[in-house]
Specification:
By secondary structure, the chain is an alpha/beta fold. The chain is 28% helix and 16% strand. The chain folds into 2 domains: 162 residues, 3-Layer(aba) Sandwich (Rossmann fold); 100 residues, Glutamyl-tRNA Synthetase, Domain 3 (Glutamyl-tRNA Synthetase, domain 3), CATH 3.90.800.10. A 3-stranded parallel β-sheet has the order 1-2-3, covered by helices on one side. It has a 3-stranded antiparallel β-sheet with strand order 4-5-8. It has a two-stranded antiparallel sheet with strand order 6-7. A hairpin with a 3-residue loop joins strand 6 and strand 7.
């Protein structure tokens, strides 16, 4: 269960980890290009993980569409595709380790009972600790319970390669957070930590919407004695209403012809294109050029940026 020691880990191993809840869109492409180019420019590996730990929201047709889109857009991953739905025994073993060290506890609170909890700095409700010292008598007979990480007075600091120093007081900002849900499914925060460690990931490149989740993941890494990771959180694409592009906000699926979308995502990330006749005129040319030209120092140091209008909404794009 333990990950390899730092001395024997790969020099660079990155990953891209989409959730199969719908087709890839412009925001998905931005994250994919950033993680792919960062890995390849460093001579590293790039793994593909399907994050389907939330089974009720996952769609088998979405996974096949994601894989087909990535291939059509010229992405080439190393090794076999990993699926979280096939790794529950690994998450269970990690939870057992946390339980053995009293780092987690059972919680029988219903979601509706937490609707009046105070909001933390990041806009999430802070768990009030109702079950921290044991499930209250009036809730002990409930047939299902979740498991929560006991954060104590922990303050997590880390330096993001783009966003700079980040800090979070876990007790004040999020409280004891769920690592296994009451329905028996493992929470993203635990699953991603176990996956990154056991797949020997060294560098995480993803959207800045996950900045606030990273301290929780670092907390679990430390409790499980996993090696630390390097983080780079790139700007997320937002629509005209200021919403993150997603299936829920009607984001347009990526068009069949890759090159215009690849170039638009490249520009979104602040990367420069060659002038005139040197500009790539095919997907193959784009990747050959982009892997050599990738420069993280040019990334916009912001959490979000507006998407180019032609890639914003499904009603506005023909695919």
């Amino acid at each position: 269960m333990n990950a390899r020691s730092d001395s024997s880990r790969p020099r660079y191993c990155g990953r891209y980890a989409p959730s199969p809840t719908g087709p890839l869109h412009f925001g998905s492409l931005v994250a994919a290009i950033a993680s792919y180019c960062d890995a390849r420019a460093a001579g590293g590996q790039w793994l593909l993980r399907i994050e389907d730990v939330d089974l009720p929201r996952s769609r088998p047709d979405a996974e096949s569409a994601i894989l087909a889109t990535l291939e059509r857009y010229g992405f080439a991953w190393d090794g076999e595709v990993t699926r979280q739905s096939a790794r529950t025994e690994l998450y269970a073993a990690a939870l057992d380790r946390l339980r053995a060290n009293a780092d987690v506890y059972a919680c029988a609170c219903a979601r509706r009972e937490l609707e009046t909890a105070a909001f933390g700095a990041g806009g999430e409700r802070v768990y009030p600790g109702t079950c921290r010292d044991g499930i209250p008598p009036d809730r002990r007979e409930r047939p299902q319970h979740a498991w929560r990480a006991r954060v104590g007075s922990t303050r997590i600091e880390y330096r993001d390669r783009l966003q700079g120093l980040q800090a979070q007081d876990l007790a004040r900002d999020v409280g004891d957070f769920v690592v296994r849900r009451a329905d028996g499914l493992y929470a993203y925060q635990l699953a991603v930590v176990v996956d990154d460690a056991l797949q020997e990931i060294t560098h995480v490149v993803r959207g800045a919407d996950l900045l606030a989740s990273t301290p929780r993941q670092i907390f679990l890494q430390r409790r499980l004695a996993y090696p630390p990771l390097s983080y780079l959180h790139v700007p997320v694409a937002i629509n005209a209403a200021g919403e993150k592009l997603s299936k829920q906000t009607g984001a347009a699926p990526l068009p069949d012809h890759p090159l215009p979308a690849l170039i638009a995502a490249w520009r979104f990330l602040g990367q420069r294109l060659p002038d005139g006749s040197g500009a790539p005129d095919s997907t193959v040319d784009f990747w050959s050029w982009a892997m050599a030209a990738w420069n993280p120092a040019l990334l916009p140091p912001t959490g979000m940026l507006p998407v180019p209008p032609r890639f914003e909404g499904a009603a506005r794009v023909k695919v």
